[in-house]
Each structure stands twice: as structure tokens, then as C-alpha cells.
Amino acid sequence: MKPANRAPAAASLTRCVRDGLLALCLLLPALPAPARAPDPATPTAVVGVRLTDLDPEHWISRLAEPDRLILDRAAIEAHNARMRAEDPSILDLATLPDPMPGEWVRQRLQALSAPPSRPLYDVQGKPVPARQLAALQQALALDRIPTSRPLRWGLAVQRTDLRAFPTALRVFSTPGDTDIDRFQESALFPGDAVAVLHESRDRQWLFVASERYTAWVRAEHIATGTRDTVLGYARREPYVVVTGASVRTTYTPEEPRVSSLQLDMGLRLPLRTDLDPTRPVNGQHPFASHVVDLPVRAADGSLEIVPALVPRSADVSPDYLPLTPANLIRQAFKFLGERYGWGHSYGTRDCSGFVSEVYRSFGVLLPRNTRDQAVSPVLERVLGEDADATQRQQAVRGLQVGDLVYIPGHVMMAIGHQDGMAYMIHDTSGGSWLGADGSRVRAGLNGVSVTPLEPLMFNDTQTYVDRLTSIQRIRARTAP
């Protein structure tokens, strides 16, 4: 470049230095204004819910005694003992007869696996043929149930489905509606103890009794061992408790049986304490992890216990959490937005699974299904199905954090009151209310949601409050 052409550039540079940032700003293109954070008071598309209502601390800040202990450890242990002794839906495995009478097995199997009484459809929306349903009855192998048999014991080695029949076939009540599989009952979790009662004709499925459910499970997901090992696993100390919605074990190619396993809220995992802390576990130094013992299945189906790593960054606790209103809200909100999963399908949970796993993080045992929770004699019944409209309204106004609120087929957990309404957190496949024009808005929430109770519609003419069947409360039983 010629010297004559450098002088204007030098003068421009001098001016930039002299005028500093002002000159620089003039040379730069205009930048867009930074985006503003949404106003917490902004309404959402769900009736009565603002953005701030989706923050657990919003509800905790409204409590007079957020850290009040509802039940201490001794009271929780007493509650659980009463559940095992008094609630007919809870099965104390330690009290099962051995050998097991065949008639006991037959009655429970036939009650669960009764032939379907209505049309069912497959994932393509086609009717399930009668011959296919008849084949499922043959798969039950009822003719192979002996008069009595010695009990076999096992531990679940991964999260696995509990099914009404020994099949992975998914069936539905309505063509195209493939969320609610009518053969899906519940789930077992890693370390859950079972008594093995029977096996399918092809021996690929086991009919098992767990503490909260009796159903069919894939044989490959159960490892069989001695009674003492199986029942003693959940009593081992020290331990950690999963307090996140779910965590996963560390990936390990060295021991794929415990690699990236899903561990759901409330699971109690015994710690391995006898390992050399300087030696790798499954190819990794253990100093930044919890070393837990998990059950695995050997090639012959027998039970082995092997170490696995859970990162110290994972949401786990050295013990069950204190049962307080604040902790109830925080634990429930950890599931907020999770997809609804009927019978624990999709690796998630349904309404009764949701509330029972929230309470499981405090060590509190609840029945698995809504129909059993709603009538459990161990819980404090705040409202019954025969209540009149005035009693229903009074009970709703008196709801406390953690109360379980039931309508037919559904349960919700109370989190507080606001704007004259009771607010719930619940895992729902539906959700509807009346729009501005008076017509019913069907939201299809299909996940863990926060909603007010009063506007929700059970059908076109009845509200949830109209259809309340029960309100149950977890609290210490007072002496008579």
C-alpha cells in the first residue's frame, strides 16, 4: 500500500483510541437485546398453574413448619410392621409356608391370569385372535402345579416388568391407544426379593410373589439363592438410598451385568466394605464412587453378589430422608415432567407408583395399587367415599402436604393451598377442565404434573371433588 493511503487509517486509529469504547460501539453492528427470563407469574397452558408453581421452593416457602418431622425412624418402622401385619395387599415373604401348598398358588395365578372378558387389540390396532389368548392359558401350565413344593427364593437383577400372563405381548382396550398395556401389572427393581411359586410351560417366565405384587416375570431377570441370602439382602448395613428420581450405575465393560443399571427412587443398596480401596472396581478406581453390592444371575440361574459403582455425584443418601413436608415436596418434584408409565412401563411409573416411590425414599411402605392404598387400614382415613358435598369441601380445605387424594383409578399428593384452591402433584395420563366457553378441555397431560384440584373434571358433569373416594394420611398412630 502506498504511504498516502496509510495516513487516513492512522488518523482513524487515533480517533478510536481517543474516543475509546464510544468509537468501537459505533463501528460494531447493533446487537439484539438480551432475552428476558420468563416472568414466574406467567400463566401456563394448564388451568390455575403459573411458572412459579412448578418450583418446589415456592410451595415450601408457604409452609409454617416445613421441617416438621411427620414420622421418625421408629414410627416408620412401626408403620411398616403394621403394613405387613394388617394390610391384605402386602405380603410378608418371611411368613410364607414352606413347602408352599399348590392350591395357594393356583388361586392367585387364576385370579391374576383369568381369560380376558373383552376384546383386546395389538400395537397395530388389530384384534388379538382368540387362539392367541387361548395359547396364553396353556402357557400357565396349571396342570403342572404340584400338591405342594419347596419354596425357591430369588432377587431381581434389574428393573423388570411384572405381567398378568407369561408373555411380552402388549394388548390394549382401544385400537390406536397404545399407552395402557392391559397385561402390564407393575415392576420389580434390582434387589427386590421374590418367592418363586411356579413357572410357565416353556420355563421362560416365573410366577413370583414379591412384597407388594404377585405376577409373572421373565426368568432371566431373577437369580435364585438361599432364603437367608435373599431375605437378608435388604437388611444389610451400611447402605445408601437412591433419593433421585433415578440414577444409574457406572458403565463398565468389565462387568456388563451391573453396567448402567437403572436404580429408582427409594432403593436401598448395601455398601461393599471389604474391598481394598486402592484397587480398581470393574476397571475403575473407586475413590469417587460408592461401591454397592448388586445381585446378578450366573449362567445356571443362581444368585451372585458383585460390586458396582454409583458415582458420588449421583442423588443418593447415606440413609432414608427425614419425613418432613419440605422433603415430601422436594422428592415429588424430582419427577416433575416425567412421562406417565402405566404399571411402571416406559421405565417410568404411574400414579400409585409415583406416590409410593416418593414415600419409599423415606423408608415408608405403601401398597402398590390405588385401590389398595385408598382403603389401607394402616393409613389415617381423612375422608371416605360416603362423604357428602360439604364434607368433601371441608376435607379439601383441610388437606396437608403429603396427603393422598383418591378418585376412581387415580391418586394425587397434596402440596398446599393457593388462591382458594388445593394444589396437587400427580402422575396422570389425562387431565381436563372447563374452558372459557364451558366446554371440556382434554389436556392429555400424560406425565407428572402440578394442578389445582377443584377445576379438574372427572367427566363432562362431575369434578374430581365430586368423585373423591378417599383421602389417606400418613402419620403416627395415637394410643387408644
TrEMBL record:
* N-terminal signal peptide: 1-37
Give the UniProt record's GO annotations in the biological process aspect.
Answer: proteolysis
InterPro entries to which the protein is assigned, alphabetical:
NLP_P60_dom, P60_peptidase_YkfC, Papain-like_cys_pep_sf, SH3b1_dom
Keywords per UniProt:
Hydrolase, Protease, Signal, Thiol protease
Domain NlpC/P60: residue ranges: 322-475
Which family is this protein grouped under?
A: Belongs to the peptidase C40 family.
Q: Per its record, how is this protein called by name?
A: NlpC-P60 family protein
Traced from the root, the source organism's taxonomic lineage reads: Bacteria, Pseudomonadati, Pseudomonadota, Gammaproteobacteria, Lysobacterales
